[in-house]
Amino acid sequence: MLEAVLYRLQFIRLMLLSLSLLAVSPAGDEGPSAAIDFRPSLDECAVHIKFAHLLLHKIRSTVHLGLQPPNSRDDEDYGWLPSFEPDVNRRQLPATFPRKTKMKSRLEGIECFEKLCLKILSITTEMPSKLTNIEDIIDFLRTYSLTDSCVLSRSLLQLVLFPRDDRLMGRTPLSSVIIESIRLFAAPAILDPTSTALTDEQCRTCWNEFVNDSVKVFLSVIQMFGQNLARQREKIINCIEDFSALHTEESSASLSLTSFVLLHTLSLIRYHFYLSFYLDLFAPFEYPYVYWYLGGVVLKWLVNTFDRSVTLIAAGEKRSIAFKTFHFSTALFYFLYSLTVTSTK
């Protein structure tokens, strides 16, 4: 019996310790400077959360040692416990909530804790390799929210990604990640060191404004994945409108980034359709034109966007090769010229 109690105390301690290693303490006991300098400790948290997950197996095997409901019933609302009153806060519940709360049994609660441990473990092990570009970040967030996520796990992921500002894990600015994604997908001339666009003051100003606005738009997309699936579906519409405004800004500046903006816009539209199917919101008579629009418009535009990306990257490589060839030819010319002058003397 004492070992069973010890298992539970150890589990609570490890969970609190793991959460403190991933997110800034809301109490602020260490002062504001500690919050500014906070960095998530993923490796140390992974060790603690693995041990906590192992303790759950021992906790499950010792459930029978505690008090049991009479007549071999399920735990139900735990009203059979002398110290527990399930209806103590019923009057404080809003009218929109059910008046009778359904509670999970102890075994179901352990399953929820196991899922939570696995989600936290995925933050510490899988997430660090997904921070190189914005596409991988969004894909990880999408997958994370779709598989056994809860309010705590989604909120924790948001706090780990952005502890205090728009720096990923408090280190890398989100703007740098977006610029790298643009370089890989569109290879614009503004990022080409051989281009004259770098010397144009107006072009640099438009580029900086576009990057700053992109950070705001992608932050709203990332924050959207902290919601539940139904709320995500509602927020997607606002994100699509933000990308539409970003597309208008890009078109007026002529930065050749239409394909990049269009890619993420279409990806959100496709995800909106996915959530609609996942939440079973389509009626059977809507399937024909839903599939038509999804396959004939959205996916077709996505394929065209990827084809254009290949063309842009190929053009960027040609510019780079031409620049290197020019410099090599120039260096060779001056080398041969110096040899000629030396032999003449």
From TrEMBL:
List the Pfam families hit by this protein, alphabetically.
TPR_NAA35
For whether the record's keyword set contains Nucleotide-binding, the answer is no
Q: Which organism is it from?
A: Gongylonema pulchrum
Alphabetically ordered keywords of this record = Signal
Q: Where is the NAA35-like TPR repeats domain?
A: 129-307
Q: Which GO terms describe its cellular component?
A: NatC complex
Question: Domain of life of the organism in this record?
Answer: Eukaryota
Report the protein name in the record: Protein MAK10 homolog
The residues the entry assigns to the signal sequence are 1-27
